[in-house]
Amino acid sequence: MRFQITDLLKVSVLSAGIFLFVTDLFIINVSLPSMQQSLQLSTSETQWIIILYVIGYASLLISSGNAGNYYGRKKMYLIGMLGFTISSVICGVSEHIYILLFGRLLQGVSSGLMVPQGIALITSLFKQQEKRTLALGIYGSIAGIASVLGQLLGGILPDQSWINESWRLIFLVNIPVGIVALISVYSLIPRIEPDVNAKISYLPMFQLFGLLIGLVCPLILGP
Predict the structure, then answer these.
(1) Which of 175, 176, 189, 193 is deepest in the core (most CB within 10 A)?
(2) CA-CA distance, 168 to 93, in Å (whole number)?
């Protein structure tokens, strides 16, 4: 069974979610010194920039898969991508650490919403074993490329001299990718009927979020 160009396009746009998540996970690690100096942040504040992103992502993974089954995977993917794009704007224009932290938390939550939908949509769209294996291989390869590209951009973008506070580019660069992904997924990916019998449990999501915050806070604020 041949892998068509349209199949490649579908996998590519559905991989945009994991691409943005992984890129922003690695890009921030390299660019933190520039952000810390520009915003005059303490060590604990810079740590929260990373941690809230990961916690927001992890907290939603429990419920986002069922939410995709109940409300529709394509719809949840689009909502997650829209949220990630908007939160990237918030991070890119933020002038205060608390606004930046809110944007990072929203980025993580949006990633936790869209990443599981991308994998689920690929599994649903490619029924043949050969095509599904190839599609998931491409998906994983894009995630690997994102981890390398994130570190590269994290070193290059904050050193740009043509813009003040060039560290903001590490967030603003997500905007065109998010817009293209939104349009492409809406146009290329067919709607899959939701499962009205799926059950969504919101309590574990809040419990996990509270547990992670409770564990991390002493580790960061204690020193």
Answers:
(1) 189
(2) 7
Distance CA 33, CA 39 (A): 10
Q: Which residue has the tokens 């980025």?
A: 107
CA distance 115 to 7: 19
Query: Is a pLDDT exceeding 60 seen at residue 1?
Result: no
Tens of pLDDT, residue by residue over 13-46, are: 999 999 999 999 899 888 888 888 888 888 888 8
What distance in Å separates the CA atoms of residue 198 and residue 208, rounded to the nearest whole number? 21
Q: Which residues contact 95 (CB under 8 A, 6 or more apart)?
A: none
Could you tell me the two tokens for 89?
């704007």
| Residue ranges in 126-202 assigned as alpha helix (H) | 129-156, 169-172, 174-188
Tell me which residue has tokens 């936790």.
112
